[in-house]
Amino acid sequence: MFHRVLSDAAALIAAFAIFAPTSVNARDAANLAESHAAEHGYARHTLGLFVGAAHEEFGRRDNGLVLGIEYEYRFGPRFGVGAILEHTYGNLDTWVYALPFAYHNGPWKLYAAPGIEETEESSERMLRLGLEYGFHAEKWEISPQLDVDFIEREGEVFVIGLTFARGFGR
């Protein structure tokens, strides 16, 4: 099941990256992205703090507070790669380690992050699919974030929260 989710996610991201620029509204999207980059620019490096909540709809888990650190290196205005380290407190009590591959379109960010979820009992492979919208204030960014973690043999975990980030290096 995990491999099917991974291949479906890769196909979805590839389709979005290939077909989004050629859609009817591609000119509007490109103008939005260019105006966003011109107005805000983009930093090569971004370091952020994530604060949120995690919830597993079915299974052994309840809600949990999530605190994390995120880093992203941008290759250009559209693509980046990074690292995520998160701890979920409460009944979940897990650590997440992931490597996000991001696609930016103006203030929007779509990413897929393969990784590992660790508990005291086990370590499971996972895939995080996420979406953010960045609000900028000079070099700072506040981004509402919505993620779904597909965890091998565990199911889905929904994560929602805010990232407080600062960019540096142009």
Care to describe what's here?
With 170 residues, the protein is of the alpha+beta class. The protein has one domain (2-168): Porin, CATH 2.40.160. It is 19% helix and 55% strand. The chain has helices at 2-19, 26-40; strands at residues 45-55, 64-74, 79-88, 94-98, 101-105, 108-118, 123-133, 135-137, 140-151, 155-168. Strands 1, 2, 3, 4, 5, 6, 7, 8, 9 and 10 form a ten-stranded antiparallel β-sheet that branches. A hairpin with a 2-residue loop joins strand 5 (101-105) and strand 6. The termini are far apart. The relative contact order is 0.20. Mean pLDDT is 81; it is low at 1-7, 15-24 and 32-38.
How many helical stretches? Answer: 2
Report the C-alpha radius of gyration, rounded: 16 Å
Structural domains: how many: 1
How far apart are the termini?
Answer: 41 Å
Q: Rough shape?
A: elongated
**Could you name the CATH topology?**
Porin
Mean pLDDT: 81
Low-confidence parts: 1-7, 15-24, 32-38
| CATH-level-2 architecture | Beta Barrel
Report the biggest beta sheet as strand number plus sense, adding barrel if it closes.
10 strands, antiparallel
CATH class group? Mainly Beta
Please give the share of residues in helix.
10-25%
**What is the H/E string?**
HHEEEEEEEEEE
- Strand tally is 10
